[in-house]
Amino acid sequence: MVYVVVGFMAVYASIAGTTDSLLRSYAARIQRRHRHEDVETLPPDDHDVDRGLRAKQVFFVVLILGLQLCGGVAMCFIEEWSYLSGIWWAFETTATVG
Questions:
Q1: What single DSSP character describes residue 38?
Q2: What does the domain layout of the chain look like in residue ranges?
Q3: Spatial distance between the Cα atoms of 4 and 24, rounded to a whole number of angstroms
């Protein structure tokens, strides 16, 4: 059981780190593209920053829920459980600390 918890943590951390670096590089590419244009740009206001942060948060929540769902469905087939039992197992495994 410890291996599963550590495995989930390692997978989530690596996916979050990789996705964060990809989103940062994409944002930097967009900023460079706007700098090369001759149009005067204004600094982003708080609304633009909040929208970008919210989009990133929604992406990570959907990613984590999708991984839990996939893990739960996999355990349904491996252990021959019901779908609800497998999804509950995935939730309990990621929610349990120690």
A1: S
A2: 2-38+48-95
A3: 30
